[in-house]
Structure to design on (679 residues):
């Protein structure tokens, strides 16, 4: 089922939950809503589910406008962050609840619940109550309950954020696999950009109730259209600094105190034509410590991450985070030379925070 | 914690036991001073013939009569009527107002706009926070005979017949007047129980395909089962012992014991006898039986409703 969100606004009195959101989701697509806490992800999801009525705008499922359709007539399956299992019902009753409400025959209920429970690997837990289950098991029950009614749309509200890191990894794979198998249009809310990047076909980045970008993960990563997106997507986050970009004799140069970096023509042309300073962004993995680096700096701190070291290098009054292999030992106070991969650098208008390279 | 409490074999364990009793001490003291001691006193009084007619300042002269008061009570031709009056009063007030209507008001006011719900509930609390004398006076003024009663004033203006409402339907008024007060207790408990149900759970039910009514039936009511049973129990016991409103409204009348209830009888016999003779000993016998009934009912409720399940061990490993 396709989902069309057009100029959706939801306000709670004066508080803006989400404003002027336009988003078209394809049939069978897996879309992630990514953004910091309080940016309106849950509000959007609950409006899609029919719990909230839109203040303005329109929501359509395929051709049908659903603004005033009550939740029970939307055929949506939803998984909540808190799992929201009914504590007084057994696992079986929890999963069977949507079927019971649909007045599905008892025998069919049994069959479907058994089937879903087996798929979710919780077939042996049907007689337990939610209070007797681990977090991971509860998560599977919640997923089972969402799937059992064979929904047209699946909504996930930060479903993995209460699980430990290892389980999160497993469930991430399982959910994605399941979604592709079933081909159900899915919207997945998260504030964890790794989750969004690994699972989603497209990511809607939100901030302060507004949509910042809606693109495929690699697009967001390599061609961020706003400074917010550039800073939010990627871990460790992109480095930002204010530079002047100028052109002389067909060569483009970005300059800041203690820093002079050459840029290729394709990257340099637009920032150079921008009057005044611009914001340059460069990801940690695009900076290397090397003998033939052109920028001199001093290591401020080294954070071992196991596979690699996260190093904070100070260049004049600027600070850069970068990743270095653990093979070479680095230590605080060491003087190093940095080389920047300027073909990966991003440039933003400091006023509008929009990209100077990628237009919307 | 559990092990050390049952097997206090070290200093630390003793200290934790002492700590436990320390925490229970204030409540324990209240129960002893305001319940156990008074019960002991009336139990003793009920075995004497103490009355205002034979009162001397020499307590030693007080005559110990054994179970005589209880025998008199069992042969009292009105005791039976009063007993069934009490059951009638408790049952109807409890089932109609204190539980059912309280539940309905809670459900309604939690399903409408928050502010409106709050205002509506605040109105329902008025009868409880009004002094009983004032509250009953309002009812009496409203319902009084023509030409005094406000309702009858309207009847007169509209050329309708006038009624002596309370005298003709005393039970209706006894139940309604008490129910209006009793309702707010359940309302407050139920409302807070409903509002403490996680929002996600309520939303989940709607998304799962329930209507709001189905959500009440399948999710909300089961989740407020304990508050429901608690209110049911607590209100049974408090209705059994309440009599002030009845005393002010009908004083057990009209006629002979038409709306007299057990606790009111205890009061009448012991402290406010018609004939000017306060039968302290005999009245105490009524009071003792009331305490007995209350305790028996409380134990039965606790068993039937399995209140011990309320205090299940916390599952710390689940946090
Ligand atoms: N029921 C509500 N009443 C009032 N304000 C709300 C309500 N739900 C959300 N908000 C507000 O709307 C904004 C977005 O909230 P939410 O959608 O929950 O954010 P997210 O899920 O992205 O963390 C926040 O400022 C929040 O305080
Ligand atoms: Mg949220």
């Amino acid at each position: 089922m396709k989902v069309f969100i057009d100029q959706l606004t939801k306000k709670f009195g004066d508080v803006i939950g989400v404003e002027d959101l336009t988003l078209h989701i394809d049939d069978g697509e897996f879309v992630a809503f990514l953004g910091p806490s309080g940016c309106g992800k849950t509000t959007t999801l609950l409006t899609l589910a029919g719990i909230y009525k839109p203040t303005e705008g329109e929501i359509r499922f395929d051709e049908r406008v659903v603004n005033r359709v009550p939740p029970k007539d939307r055929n949506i399956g939803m998984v909540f962050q808190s799992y929201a299992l009914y504590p007084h019902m057994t696992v079986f009753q929890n999963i069977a609840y949507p079927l019971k409400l649909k007045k599905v025959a008892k025998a069919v209920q049994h069959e479907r619940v058994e089937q879903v429970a087996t798929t979710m690997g919780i077939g042996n837990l049907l007689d337990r109550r939610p209070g007797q289950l681990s977090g991971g098991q509860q998560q599977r029950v919640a997923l089972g309950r969402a799937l059992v009614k064979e929904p047209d749309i699946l909504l996930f509200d930060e479903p993995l954020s209460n699980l430990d890191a290892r389980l999160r990894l497993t469930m991430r794979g399982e959910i994605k696999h399941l979604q592709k198998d079933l081909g159900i249009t899915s919207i997945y809310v998260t504030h964890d950009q790794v989750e969004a990047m690994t699972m989603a076909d497209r990511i809607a980045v939100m901030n302060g109730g507004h949509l910042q970008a809606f693109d495929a993960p690699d697009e967001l990563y390599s061609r961020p259209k706003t400074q917010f997106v550039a800073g939010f997507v990627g871990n460790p986050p992109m480095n930002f600094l204010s530079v002047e970009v100028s052109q002389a004799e067909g060569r483009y140069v970005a300059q800041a105190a203690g820093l002079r970096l050459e840029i290729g023509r394709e990257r340099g042309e637009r920032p150079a034509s921008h009057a005044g300073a611009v914001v340059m962004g460069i990801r940690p993995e695009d900076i290397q410590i090397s003998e033939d680096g052109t920028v001199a700096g001093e290591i401020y701190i080294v954070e071992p991450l196991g596979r690699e070291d996260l190093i904070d290098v100070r260049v004049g009054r600027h600070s850069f985070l970068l990743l270095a292999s653990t093979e070479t030992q680095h230590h605080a106070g060491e003087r190093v030379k940095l080389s920047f991969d300027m073909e990966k650098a991003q440039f933003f208008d400091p006023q509008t925070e929009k990209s100077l390279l990628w237009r919307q | 914690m559990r092990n050390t409490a049952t097997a206090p074999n070290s200093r630390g364990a003793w200290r934790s036991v002492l700590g436990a009793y320390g925490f229970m001490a204030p409540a324990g003291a209240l129960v002893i001073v305001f319940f156990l001691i008074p019960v002991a006193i009336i139990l003793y009084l009920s075995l004497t013939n103490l009355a205002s007619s034979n009162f001397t300042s020499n307590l030693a002269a007080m005559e110990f009569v054994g179970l005589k008061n209880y025998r008199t009570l069992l042969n009292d031709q009105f005791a039976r009527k009063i007993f069934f009056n009490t059951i009638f009063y408790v049952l109807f007030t409890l089932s109609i107002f204190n539980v059912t209507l309280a539940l309905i008001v809670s459900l309604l006011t939690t399903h409408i706009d928050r502010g409106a719900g709050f205002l509506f509930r605040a109105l329902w609390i008025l009868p409880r926070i009004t002094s009983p004398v004032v509250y009953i006076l309002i009812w009496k003024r409203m319902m009084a005979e023509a030409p005094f009663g406000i309702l009858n004033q309207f009847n007169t203006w509209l050329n309708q017949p006038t009624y002596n409402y309370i005298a003709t339907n005393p039970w209706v008024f006894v139940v309604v007047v008490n129910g209006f007060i009793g309702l707010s207790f359940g309302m407050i408990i139920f409302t807070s129980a409903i509002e403490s149900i996680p929002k996600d759970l309520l939303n989940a039910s709607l998304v799962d395909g329930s209507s709001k009514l189905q959500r009440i039936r399948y999710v909300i009511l089961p989740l407020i089962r304990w508050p429901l049973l608690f209110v049911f129990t607590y209100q049974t016991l408090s209705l059994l012992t309440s009599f002030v409103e009845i005393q002010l409204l009908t004083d057990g009348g009209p006629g002979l014991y038409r709306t007299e209830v057990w606790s009111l009888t205890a009061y009448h016999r012991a402290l406010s006898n018609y004939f000017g003779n306060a039968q302290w000993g005999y009245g105490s016998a009524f009071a003792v039986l009331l305490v007995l009934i209350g305790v028996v009912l409380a134990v039965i409720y606790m068993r039937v409703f399995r209140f011990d399940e309320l205090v299940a061990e916390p599952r710390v490993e689940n946090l």
Remarks:
- The first helix of chain B runs from residue 2 to 6.
- Residues A 41-42 surround magnesium ion (ligand 2) (CB under 6 Å).
- Chain B has a mean pLDDT of 83.
